[in-house]
Amino acid sequence: MLHNVQKFHGFTLHDLSLFQIIIGALLGLCLTQALADDSVNENNQGNDGGNSHQNVNINNQDHIANINSYNGWKGWAAVWDYSKELFTTRLFNKRACIVAKMNKDAFPSLEKLSKFKDQKVRVKGTPPPPFLRFSITKTRVRNVAQFGRSIGNLCKGVPTYYAQQDQGEHFSLLFESQGCADAGILGLFGIYLCGNISGC
């Protein structure tokens, strides 16, 4: 029985379809690598002799950085959403989330976060990294889903409060005594969330 096989320049339709599938798979692989997350790990020896460890995962496609700080009961998790210009931190010891407007001029860019993985831990005697201080308000967020899936998932099931950036100069050494939580990236950028959270 003869089969009717069309040929184009020596290739059958079956060969051409297979070639298109291979090209599509290669393009998909390249695109996946271009949009892949960057992962930054940072270890630091604390002033009290304890160790803290942070992990930063960057989603270049959605313009989001997910940060986890593993420091026992003082640990926290955060989402920096550059597309919405918001950052959110879940403080485990407070059992609460804090949402604030991101100052994009002051926050390190996603590109800088990616490059930070090649940077060494800050050498003793060098100036501390830049920082911002935020005051936690008494205003609770009623619907965290309004901020998108990443922030909504982080803060689901816990009280969530707004915070506002403080203006002026502050001395970072006083922050802990003022009840502030350090929620920045070790050696790169400091964020201090200050104030009492009602109900916690």
UniProtKB/TrEMBL annotation:
Q: What keywords are annotated for this sequence in UniProt?
A: Disulfide bond, Signal
N-terminal signal peptide = 1-36
> Gene3D superfamilies under this entry?
3.30.390.150
Domain BRICHOS stretches: 70-163
Species in which this protein is naturally found: Chrysemys picta bellii (Western painted turtle)
Q: Which Pfam families match?
A: BRICHOS
Q: What is this protein called?
A: Gastrokine 3, pseudogene
Look up keyword Nucleotide-binding and say if it applies. no
Q: Which PANTHER family match?
A: GASTROKINE 1
Gene name of this polypeptide: LOC103306124
Lineage, top-rank taxon, reads Eukaryota
The record's listing under SMART domains reads: BRICHOS
